[in-house]
Write a sequence for this structure.
């Protein structure tokens, strides 16, 4: 369990992994992008997740990325390294390497494809928590892994001193609310459409792919909610500003995350047109076509209030 309501901050970006035109890791680009995201309001960066194309980066590339980003912004933001895999031994190796590279915390996904029972899921997470000295964020995304981290399992895992948080993509607000009420686990929304609903029932913030290109508008949702909570001037309608801010972000979130393109593809397409590092994607992913990019730019421009070409 954790002693902090927000052990990794509030506004976390699931950062893409920049690649050079040759397809190699762009370390300088990663430094530049990380610096930009923190300057724009991200107080945490999650590296080597799905948006970071972790299935197609090598262990050495993952370590190099963590080292570079920690060196660049580790004094200003919480750097969380994705270390999940379907193999407990491999996850342990990645976790130790990320900790050694300077990561503040680790994102550990449920072992995928093999669909282990809950007792085995619990044992997997405990093995990682026992092996490292940094806090863990457990990643509950059953649509991708095939296995839920059940609320009862999370409640038991919360007793471990290094199990600090959950990245929640389970689409079960009732279950999440139950765990929040019974533990001190910090809940981070991993689905932009649930950023505000989860925050309203006690969540800690978000881990967002959309934050690669719109960190300010996403953070504004949380800022507006907190102002409503703290200021009597907002009266009984104090949350209306946060609702409006949330609704403004939803079209971009839908365009990037629910229009058929993987988040890494849509984020890199926009980053490229914004003049920021991102680069190509690795196969089996393919770059977005011109029509898709134009559509993304239109929605992005509507959110940001300026046309982008």
């Amino acid at each position: 369990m954790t002693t902090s309501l927000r052990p990794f901050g509030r506004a976390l970006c699931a950062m893409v992994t920049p690649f050079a035109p040759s397809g190699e890791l762009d370390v300088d680009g990663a430094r530049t992008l990380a610096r930009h995201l923190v300057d724009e309001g991200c107080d945490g960066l999650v590296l080597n997740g799905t948006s970071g194309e972790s299935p197609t980066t090598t262990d050495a590339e993952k370590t190099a990325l963590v080292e570079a980003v920690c060196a660049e912004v580790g004094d200003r933001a919480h750097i969380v390294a994705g270390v999940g895999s379907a193999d407990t031994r491999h996850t342990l190796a990645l976790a130790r390497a990320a900790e050694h590279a300077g990561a503040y915390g680790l994102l550990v996904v449920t072992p995928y494809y093999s669909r282990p029972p809950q007792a085995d899921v619990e044992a997997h997470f405990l093995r990682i928590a026992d092996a490292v000295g940094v806090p863990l964020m457990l990643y509950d995304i059953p649509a991708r892994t095939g296995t839920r981290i059940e609320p009862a399992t999370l409640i038991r895992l919360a007793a471990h001193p290094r199990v600090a948080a959950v990245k929640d993509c389970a689409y079960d607000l009732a279950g999440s609310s139950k765990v929040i009420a019974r533990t001190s686990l910090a809940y981070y929304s991993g689905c932009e459409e649930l950023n505000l609903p989860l925050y309203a029932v006690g969540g800690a913030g978000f881990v967002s792919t959309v934050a690669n290109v719109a960190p300010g508008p996403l953070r504004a949702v949380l800022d507006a909610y907190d102002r409503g909570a703290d200021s009597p001037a907002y009266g009984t309608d104090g949350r209306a500003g946060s609702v409006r801010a949330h609704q403004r972000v939803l079209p971009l979130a839908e365009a990037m995350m629910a229009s058929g393109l993987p988040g890494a593809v849509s984020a890199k397409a926009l980053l490229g047109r914004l003049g920021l590092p991102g680069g190509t994607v690795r196969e089996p992913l393919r770059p977005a076509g011109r029509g898709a990019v134009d559509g993304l730019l239109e929605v992005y421009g509507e959110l940001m209030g300026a046309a982008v070409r």
In short: Strands lie at 11-14, 44-47, 78-82, 105-109, 136-140, 163-168, 186-189, 205-208. The radius of gyration is 18 Å. The mean pLDDT is 94. Residues 240-257 form the longest helix (18 residues).
